[in-house]
């Protein structure tokens, strides 16, 4: 895939976000062809919205650079490792958009099926699990993503593993120990690992440590492990392109024998970005209240239902544009 316009990348992020929200909430009226009503809402709401936007933003921007990785670095095997597997709605949205789900199941999967099978009997649960395509570890079992990425990159110079790490996940001893694995990787003989810390500020019910220290202190920590920290506003495609271009140059120079530090991206997005800012006198977006299911009373409370409808409509989703996007992502 060649480089897309900024608008095309943004459309992928918006539609992936829409699909994530739709999977968590909807059992009918999946494209909002009519006003939303209580009967359209699942009787039990499960999922973790708060990290979904960051997963979608990182994946869309990295996808845009896969042709550059191939041309400049000889990467023929690109892998996107998601540490925060409890944000499975975003992962499944990507699987549906790029054709992975159809390839696994051997047939077309409709938007209705995508939404209905999320956290539903005989479908997929709200976390990644062994039945999920390409899954190694259960989605709530945080901490192993970086070590998995390094293991996959060893002795595979044609492979790149971009790994998204939650800021709560980064507090685990497993991730911090895995930060040392860069000492074992020789990019002239091995593949490439790109760690991406998703700094969205909150864990399930409280602030994350790394969002409450200064940028300098976080930068010093990452530098102390031997990486070159690069900060990016996750909601700005142009910034992503500048940062990924720097990464490519650093990796290229390393493969030419110019030893240096390897990049470590810190992606900043507000927690639950896209959620309406406030409801019932409480802040939602940018707080821990958006971690799991905002507006959890949408089936029984008219105000929550209206806020959910406003939220879904903000993505301007249409089936025709979605089908065009799916065809583009499938080549």
Overall description:
By secondary structure, this protein is an alpha/beta fold. The chain has twelve helices and seven strands. β4, α10 and β5 form a beta-alpha-beta unit. The termini are close together.
Quickly list its features:
single chain, about 40% helix, about 325 residues, two-stranded antiparallel sheet, 5-stranded parallel beta sheet, alpha/beta
What fraction of residues sit in β-strands?
5-15%
Report the biggest beta sheet as strand number plus sense, adding barrel if it closes: 5 strands, parallel
- Mean pLDDT, to the nearest integer, reads 90
Shape: globular
Alpha carbon gap, first and last residue: 7 Å
Structural class: alpha/beta
Return residue spans where pLDDT drops below 50 for at least 5 consecutive residues: none
Order of helices and strands: HHHEHHHHEHEHEHEEEHH
Question: What is the strand and helix layout of this fold?
Answer:
Layout: H1 6-25, H2 52-64, H3 66-73, E1 77-82, H4 88-98, H5 100-105, H6 111-117, H7 145-153, E2 159-166, H8 173-178, E3 192-199, H9 215-224, E4 227-233, H10 237-255, E5 262-268, E6 278-279, E7 282-283, H11 302-313, H12 319-329
Parallel strand pairs: 1-2, 2-3, 3-5, 4-5
Antiparallel strand pairs: 6-7
